[in-house]
Amino acid sequence: MERNFVDKNSIVRVIWGKADTVLFIFAGAAAEFALNKAVDWLYFTGRLPADPLGRLFSTVAYARQIIFSDEENALLAIDRITAIHQDVEKKRGDNIPDWAYRDVLFLLIDYSIRSFELLERKLSEAEKSEVFLIFYRVGERMGLAGLPKNFDEWIFMREGHLKENLVRSDFTTDLYRQYKKHLGSFRYLILTQVQFQLVPKTVRNLLGLTNKYWLVPLLQLYKICRLLRTEGILKTALLPPAYREQIKMLDSR
Question: How many CB atoms lie within 10 A of CB 187?
């Protein structure tokens, strides 16, 4: 019998099987990427600043391929990610720091939990540990050093990474300029409000995110629309037309 990398009944499949949750995860990631001390690596190829939304969807595709594939194909996807990064390292003649790789895994764990809890419900400690374990296995397959061994150790290391590895820089300013350019002013405002609700206080303070107070009622409206199965109307209004079909596909699992 074919074994899945992530069990079909796993909370991780629930989290990553809904478009809105996935988009919230990457709203958080977009904030933290802009502050990471290793963000220059994302600028080396020029792909992220040139097309941040396209880059988002390619990253989502890899993550979902791992989460929704059988064991063999998930491991192949992880190996492709490793090979892509190794190729970039070869072209630049330097190595991406281990802590930078860990940062990406850590933020995927954190925003998977935060996004689901913001949109759905609180997760149990067992469910949070399950989210950690899946991404731990990804990091282990990539051969990353210094990974935490359990969820409690991850919490401790995550706090350390937030304090040590984030800084506001010219890259931060430029990335947010690109976000606004590609989203438009109104959608960009929504992005920053989602980020305010979602990200840790350290990230919020470094970015200078402020609360406009209207997002919470909008989230409540969205939750009601989901119950009535009419959220597609609101989602269509809030998302760039060029990416609507790709976003719909995120709900296909």
Answer: 15
For residue 109, give both structure tokens.
Answer: 């764990």
The pLDDT tens digits of the residues spanning 191-250 come to: 898 899 899 999 999 999 988 766 667 666 666 666 555 455 555 555 666 666 666 666
Q: Judge whether residue 58 has pLDDT over 80.
A: no
Supply the pLDDT for residue 232: 58
Radius of gyration of the chain (CA): 18
Distance, in Å, from the CA atom of 223 to the CA atom of 231, rounded to the nearest integer, reads 8
DSSP H or E segment with residue 15: helix 11-16
All residues at 6 or more sequence positions from 195 whose CB lies less than 8 Å from its CB, including other chains: 27, 28, 30, 31, 203, 204, 207, 209
How far is 159 from 193, CA to CA, in rounded Å? Answer: 23
Nearest to 218 by CA among 172, 245, 243, 187: 187
- The angle that helices 98-119 and 125-141 make with each other, rounded to 10 degrees, is 150
pLDDT at 244: 66
Residue (of 8, 222, 5, 24) closest to 112 by Cα position: 24
Cα–Cα distance for residue pair 220/203, rounded to 1 Å:
24
Cross-strand bridge partners of residue 4? 70
DSSP string, 48-108: HHH-HHHHHHHHHHHHHHHHTSBHHHHHHHHHHHHHHHHHHHHHHTS---HHHHHHHHHHH
Handedness of CA 12, 116, 223, 180 (dihedral sign): negative
